[in-house]
Amino acid sequence: MKDDIIAGLDIGSSTIRMVIGQKMAGENENKLQIIGAVEVLAQGISRGVVNSIEDTTSSISTCLEKAERLVGVPIQSVWVSINGPHIKSEKSRGVVAVGKSDGEITEDDVSRAIEAAQALSAPPNYEILHVMPVKYAVDNQEDVRDPIGMTGVRLEVETIVIQGLSTQINNLTKAIHRTGLEIEDLVLSPLVAAEVVIGVKQKELGSALVNIGASTTSLAVFEEGELLHTAVLPIGSEHITADIAIGLRCPINIADRIKIEIGSANHNKFNKKEEIDIKELMAKEESEEDMGLVSGRYIAEIIEARVDEIFEKVDGELKKISRSGMLPAGIFLVGGGAKLNDIVETAKKKLRLPVCLGTNKNISTVIDKVNDLNFLTALGLVAWGNQVISSQKGFNLPVGKTINKFINKAKKWISSLIP
Fold first, then answer.
1. Which end of the chain is less packed: N or C, by CB atoms within 10 Å?
2. Which PANTHER family is this protein grouped with (predicted)?
């Protein structure tokens, strides 16, 4: 039973979530059954990066214990999401000569081409997380989807290389290993969320997933079935809460309540004289602050200004790849920040594209909790892990290779602490 368990660990700035899936025995071995989902408050993490290994380890341990109590079996390894402004992506090309004398391209040729694409000059202290092939070229034939079995002399591959700051990756792997968990691989969070949210046809047409977290907003853009661009922006829903707290001169917990329960990303919903009584919200938070009526339009204007900024930055990333207003399948919003009232309408206006909230389309589950916008990344990690385990060819990336060096370093570091 333990070998059938696949766990996804989504480490966010405000919350750590874990989804546990079990591979079904029988004819359809790829089928997954989701057997549990838990979440705990995160400590020791800021803007997607670890700033206290001790606190992060404690939070992950709490989440692990909660998950093991829920599913009744020990969890030994996890697929982990990674996020943060330190993540960079850039394009790279690799060229190799076809190895076989008859010119038939094999998997070995493709692997060598992808390896050649990794030989780019990375910034100091950066390590490669993923090498995602976008398209191949065989001799003079461009835009080849799968070159294996074709005949040629020269094989070229265009890839997107995703890199992370090695110190941040080290800190994250240390914190996880100190809980006794093994790491299957680290995967960029918008990539895994897209696995359960965006369909094959939508990836073909051109679409993007935008994950609005507490302190970061990440995106992944797809076209012709392949990844086109990724980015992590250092702005999220916590910035909206802070803006409300400053604008209304109220405590941060009250500002968060106002944002969730009465806030809106569209100030046109309120007339200028409309006021909202927030005494009930104050009572829920047991606050002694003397705040009665507040202007609904004023709150919405504060929220809308920051939401506009988030989508302007997203649009800026689309402009970098000449896809601003040019993704026919549109934008899919996930993450806690996407729960904000009227955010979809604001996003449509700013991005000039179809926009909708992301939903789980690819994994059937009886646990409603995992279909929540907050859990889609952790659910995506389970789907990603299942696909990779079932077929290494399902994803064009060297699974586990890049992370092994960090895992080994972390193991040595932990063993040095044991007397």
1. C
2. CELL DIVISION PROTEIN FTSA (PTHR32432:SF4), CELL DIVISION PROTEIN FTSA-RELATED (PTHR32432)
Of residues 346 and 271, more confidence is placed in: 346
Amino acid present at 173:
T
Superfamily of domain 200-360: ATPase, nucleotide binding domain (3.30.420.40)
**3-state percent breakdown (helix, strand, coil) of the chain, nearest 5:** 40, 30, 30
CATH architecture label of 2-85+166-197+361-417:
2-Layer Sandwich (3.30)
d(CA 76, CA 22): 13
Q: If you average pLDDT over residues 241-252, what whole number do you get? A: 92
Can you give the pTM of this predicted structure? 0.87
Element (H, E) at 65: helix 53-71
Query: Which stretch of 164-178, 275-289, 403-417 has the lowest confidence by average pLDDT?
Result: 403-417
The pair of three-digit structure tokens given for residue 64, joined into one six-digit string = 């692990």
Residue 243 pLDDT > 70, yes or no? yes
Beta strands 217-223 and 207-212 are: antiparallel
- One CATH from 3.30.1490.110, 3.40.50.300, 1.10.260.40, 3.90.1570.10 for 88-164: 3.30.1490.110
Q: Which residues contact 278 (CB under 8 A, 6 or more apart)?
A: 254, 258, 262, 291, 292, 293, 294
User: What are the start and end residues of each CATH 3.30.1490.110 domain in the chain?
Assistant: 88-164
356-367 pLDDT, tens digit per residue, is 999 998 888 888
Pick the closest to residue 159 from 114, 211, 105 (CA basis). 114
